[in-house]
Specification:
By secondary structure, this protein is an alpha+beta fold. The protein has a single domain, classed as Enhancer of rudimentary (ERH-like fold). 43% of the residues lie in helices and 27% in strands. Strands 2-1-3-4 form a four-stranded antiparallel sheet. Helix 1 packs across helix 3.
């Protein structure tokens, strides 16, 4: 999954429920992964508005991803000129690789 971290154009598709979906485009896969993390952090702030500090670990983030109706990253393979879809499981693996690179 670390090979996806250096990819360019990425589309993030998120459905929190069956009736809601959104997409965002990013110039880098890592920026899309950061957005997924931010979505979780925003959710935590909504759930804990009085908390000044909120901590979580990767298992909490993975539970959030699993709770979504759907999440997909469409990552551009520039050589082939095609987008490759990454599943929830792949998104979780990419986020873990991304966070390990940040440490």
């Amino acid at each position: 999954m670390a090979s996806y971290l250096n990819k360019t154009h990425t589309i993030l598709l998120v459905s929190e429920s069956r009736s809601s979906s959104s997409y965002q485009m990013f110039n880098k896969t890592t920026t899309a992964l950061e957005r997924v993390i931010k979505l979780y952090e925003q959710k935590l702030k909504e759930m804990n508005p009085q908390a000044s500090n909120i901590t979580y670990d990767i298992s909490n983030l993975n539970e959030f991803i699993d709770s979504l109706y759907d999440i997909t990253l469409m990552v551009l393979d520039e050589r082939a000129g095609l987008y490759e879809g990454l599943s929830k499981a792949d998104v979780k693996k990419c986020i873990l690789a991304f966070l390990k690179n940040q440490a």
